[in-house]
Amino acid sequence: MQFFDDSLHPENMEKVVITVAPYGPEWMPEDFPEDIPLTMDEQVQKAVDCYDAGATVLHLHVRELDGKGSKRLSKFNELIAGVREAVPEMIIQVGGSISFAPESDGEAAKWLSDDTRHMLAELTPKPDQVTVAINTTQMNIMELLYPQYLEGTSLAHPAIQAAYSEMTVPAGPAWVREHLRRLQASGIQPHFQLTGMHALETLERIVRKGDYMGPLNLTWIGIGGGFDGPNPFNFFNFIHRAPNGCTLTAESLLKNVLPFNTMALAMGLHPRCGNEDTIIDQHGKRFGSVQQIQQTVRVAHELGREIANGKEARAIYRIGEQYSSIEQTLQANGMAPNRQPGQKGVPQRA
């Protein structure tokens, strides 16, 4: 991204798009019963409360009544429909790590022939976004979930820790190419969840080959364990290399969330918060999703930045836009054109 002398002046920045992840799939409801919704009505109400507090992007996961994360397509459809009715302007962003499971014997008979993560393109009603990872990566969240923060929670159990430490995000080239094709055909915008510079570089190659032609909404994820670590130099290097025309959101874990969100807000970028990222504040006390949004709004206002409403957030994210050519995609995202045969030096537009 390019910064001018006045780029840090708030009057020259887009309004702030706050993403909230309030469904904390790694936690059980008893870990934070005041904040983690369980019933469908509670899950819809949580979206309403977050929107009213200032968040315009809802990172959505779904929970069953036993407290476990849902793998049922029907439950996702139900929650999306409920949120769409309750807060129609909110951007619904479904977490793309879900693999759906069969709900009947008839489905089970054909299930193994399908890549169940591609079914995210078949959600009804359609979400605005599905998050998409680039490159298969280790996702060991336990590296940064320090024991003192896990006492009294389900993640203190050694077997659960072992399972989470061995998580991977499968996102090989063929899968990503097909997933992007299906999402674009369904009119669902991918939101790219990037683990570091290598993922950004791969995404640029995907765009330059024409496998994706649309806006670039990116999240840098500094959670360690196979992703970038929460080192500001990792974040700033990523900012430096990100295309000028993208949007960029910061995501981290626990006590790193507030510092990285503050850096993002100061630089004209966007924050993410919610109990999927942290259930504690800077003093180690329980800190709910709505409280985190309210804190983010306060910090943004101290920095002179305004908070986007739902309509404004949709315009900033360019929800619903797709492009018809590689060159149009590159230009819309502030990227240099592809090199033409025999072209010397740095390719530029006339």
Keywords:
single chain, 350 residues, alpha/beta, TIM Barrel, 12 helices, 10 strands, 11% strand
Strand count: 10
Find the structural class using helix and strand composition. alpha/beta
Morphology: globular
Number of helices: 12
Q: How big a fraction of the residues is strand?
A: 5-15%
Mean pLDDT: 95
**Helical proportion, percent range:** 25-40%
User: How can the largest sheet be summarized?
Assistant: 8 strands, parallel, barrel
Kindly provide the radius of gyration, computed on alpha-carbon positions and rounded to a whole number of angstroms.
Answer: 20 Å
Adjacency order of strands in the biggest sheet: 1-2-3-4-7-8-9-10
Overall structural domain count:
1
Quote the distance from N terminus to C terminus: 21 Å
CATH homologous superfamily caption: Aldolase class I
Low-confidence stretches: none
Task: Give the ordered list of helices and strands.
Answer: EHEHEHEEHHEHEHEHEHEHHH
How is this structure best described in words?
There is one protein chain. The two termini are 21 Å apart. The strands form 2 sheets. This protein has an 8-stranded parallel barrel with strand order 1-2-3-4-7-8-9-10, surrounded by 8 helices. A two-stranded antiparallel sheet has the order 5-6. Helix 1 crosses helix 2. It has one domain: Aldolase class I (TIM Barrel, Alpha-Beta Barrel), CATH 3.20.20.70. It is of the alpha/beta class and 350 residues long. The chain is globular and about 60 Å long.
